[in-house]
Amino acid sequence: MRKFLLAFLLLFFAIKSEARYNTLLIPDTLSGTTFNLVAKDTIKQFFPGNQTVTAGINGNWWGPTMIFNKGDVVHINLTNKLQDSTTMHWHGMHLPAVMDGGPHQIIPPSTVWQPYWQVTNNAGFYWFHPHLHEMTEEQVNSGLGGLIIVRDAVESALPLPRKYGIDDIPLALTDRKFDASNQLVLDAPYGDSMMVNGTLRAQYNVPAQVVRLRILNGATERSYNLGFSDNRTFYVITTDGGLLNAPVPVTRYLLSSGERIEVLVSFNGQTGQSVNLMAYNSTLPAVIPGGDIFPQGTPFYNYLARKDFNILKLNVTAQTSNPITSIPSTLTTNVFPSEGSVNATRVVTLSDTTIGGPGAGPTFILNHKFFQFNYNDYNVPLNNTEIWQLTSTSTFSHPFHIHDVEFHILTRNGAAPPSYEAGWKDVVLVKPGETVRFITKFDDYADSLHPFMFHCHIALHEDLGMMGQFVVKNPSVGIVEGSTPVQQHAMYSIYPNPAYNKLFFNDGGTNNGIYYVRITNTLGKTMYMLPKPELQNGIDISGLPVGVYFAQVIFDKTFEKADCLLKFTK
Known about the structure:
By secondary structure, the protein is mostly beta strands. It has 4 helices and 41 strands. It is globular, with a radius of gyration of 25 Å. It starts with a helix and ends with a strand.
């Protein structure tokens, strides 16, 4: 009887323990060349009782995974239905600055922003998230963001898993803090609860074969020292910007905020077994985000500080048809810029400082100053090949991110980087006292008006001013700053007027291209934001209600603004 009772209790606790897990949510996918995204305030049931107020893109948390093909021109229709302004940055994408979605491309509420660009990135794993200055931490913590998968001919020819959600699984890692009413603490740098794709205590079934995990560290601060509960080897096949030359075997990988990797894990012959993807953060020193411990009751206190914890439970099930069962020995041949082709070396300093007034205390800066919205740190000549030297005197580690380009790490403290970092990157963790040198080329998208950003990817640090910006300039061709008399545009006109579905522009033979069109109503409210609109196709105004509108035009060659009255009947 005693043995029976013991067996019953063990079974009961096993069932109860299993019930604690939630099935991992796999984001829906969007593919093609036109992508409709809606950012909105919403709610999600994380816990019994009160629902949690969140934000999301096309849903109640996070957003869809957009699948791009290299070479395609992709068009985004992003509608902001939030109560606040926002931006949306396409992290890792090589694209014009005016489409980049940094702090300068502010999208007011109820406004449609329509960026587009040709996809030139290599196959890899990218993402999108808000980048509103001084609000990034709050908006990312609310649940705004999503994933991007780029495919190309090189990757598609490899024997790799790519059945989305089956043997090719996207994982957006993050942690969140909830208050006693189940509401998100939006200004919390660290969370007490681990989440994957917005799922708490996540588990997922994987087939008994080689599985590809695409992993994003989407946390606002914490790094994750990734490994498996049985200490198995896994194989890193990509860094931020695409494939490595060959898979690199590891048992641990320290992934910092904003970084992405793709890994291959063999579950061959393991049907019926389970293993946990873990964060082995108990071994992190205090200078690594997530290794720092603060007293209870202070803003940075969190339950997960310097602890090992489960990220995702993986249950091994039967093989699929046509499974991938082996790890390839080679992947691609990356060609990086040579140091002999370098035109300039820029030294970027990472250091500590203090701020006064409300919220006074220690903080961090780049190049010995706080971010200034209208100050460009660098003017980068088009086609420059450059070395950026990141030199840290800070007492904390910072994941440094640069917009526009992918880079190749040359050295860490004079030594070559480990092989799992030897690919294309756009985020690199710079530790205290460390000097990291990387090489990159600015071979496109000259624009004297809209800058690209570089910053620490810890959202709080970025919001407090650990950020700079640069413009890429073509000294001989393209946009030239200045002004010309309004009379030059006297022949500029729009047609038809009244308009119904599409609006076209006539430049009167001035050959003065349009850089930006902002359509506002008679109250001055922005309705559409159209960077470098494809005027030959006309501007689609079918979504506007009947009324009188103004098109504020910024011209390529002058940056002069001219207002044109758009009057049409629907």
